[in-house]
Structure prediction request, 496 residues.
Amino acid sequence: MEVFSMNKKALTLAILFSMATTGAFASDLVTTTVNNSGKLSKLQEQAVLLTQKQLADKAAKDVATFPSALALNEVKTVDLALKNNRTAKQSMWAYEAAKSTVSATAASKNPSVGYSYSATRARGATDASSVTERGTNGFSLSVPVYTPSVDAAIDGARYDREGAGASYEEALQTAKLTAISDYYTLIMYRNLVDVAQQSVRDYDGHVTNVQAQYNVGLVASSDVLAARTNLADAQTTLITRQNSADVAETDLNIVIGYPVSTSIETADKEMRYLPYNVTLEQAKAYALLHRATLVKSAMDVKSAEESVKQAKAGYLPTVSLTAGKNYASDDNYRGTSNNGWSVGANASLDIWDGGSTRNTIKVREAQLESAKEANLAAVDGVLYDVQSAYLNLRAAEQTISSTKVAVEEGQESFRIASLRYRAGVGSNLDVLDAETSLTTARNNYVQALYNYNIYVATLEQAVGVPLETPVGHGAPLIANSDSVNTLANLAAQVTK
Prediction:
């Protein structure tokens, strides 16, 4: 009884120790700054320290790596974004993981080699002096021959890998568009700063003229007040435009992975107009053949098909060849005698699994149909993106011409109104209205150029123009690709 009691106590202590070390007594209470009076838990402190260390390391690296000022053109802007964009990097690592998953899944088809060793020492039940020692060594080889479930899983992993690669391409395309958009935005706001500065100079000159007229009694004080009010409004607009330009510079630094305080000088001082000679039909056909997101959605369908095959493999047997070599001994631990060998084959088949395979097939088939619908939705989305960007591009193209004419006419109207006022035959209101109209026309012209170039970049992203193609130079590639005929030929093959 004493021995039993001691053993019971030892067992209890062992169980308690196991539960303590495995977390069986761990609290389920989640301690957050919300339910803990703003205090950080130990795990939260560790997470904060990790983030702070990363930031400190980054700050030290930034000081050593990045200059305080940076000269950019379109090509360099895109290159830096593709290199440093964090979202794209995440997609890259997802792609790397998908590639490794293929290898990991395919490893199930490789032969497996095993080794086992065991040793026992036993005392006789009736004769306490009788002790038996036994050692066993074993080598085994198994070669898969027929594994339909694994085969389907490998093919599915390959489709997932291609889909992940397409997602990475799409992420890079998005990074390119974002970078060039921020680059154009910075130029646009700096152009608007120039417009605002010119407006301030125009109003300031007019105030000087009105004050001179007032000093000799030719105009009323109301003219001076009106001119000064418009000058103050122009100065306020200038401050707003400059702030917008500074924010745009910060945005561009973020997208290219540079510190936000980096001063950027753009090679392009204003946006240009380059004709983009493609038809809507050409753009849509090229997109259906080259847009990465469509590759991704199609790969998802193929992967779902393999998942269905994998589920149906539950009704099929698996077969493998086996071989083994064993060494055993009844009088020592080494087990180096009484050797034997074996060669054979294993086959297994579930006769009945309670409906698990049948229901799994239903799940996978539903997922396949969902993937097919998602693929069609992706096609609709791409075609919408292409058409929207194309129509906006053409509208902006027409606006460029009209706003340019408005600027030229506004300049002449302001010149004439100013001359008439100085000659005493025009009104102060005429001058102020003319300057307001001129400033509006200048702003509209800058905005039209910006919109056009943005829609060109958006269209090229929507159709899947290669990353290495400079922005705005994708038109010849699209027009000369013969994508319309290629797509028609593919459609004809499918319908046969």
Notes: The CA atoms of residues 309 and 478 lie 39 Å apart. Confidence is low (pLDDT under 50) at residues 1-6. DSSP finds twelve helices and six strands in the chain. The two ends are 87 Å apart (CA to CA).
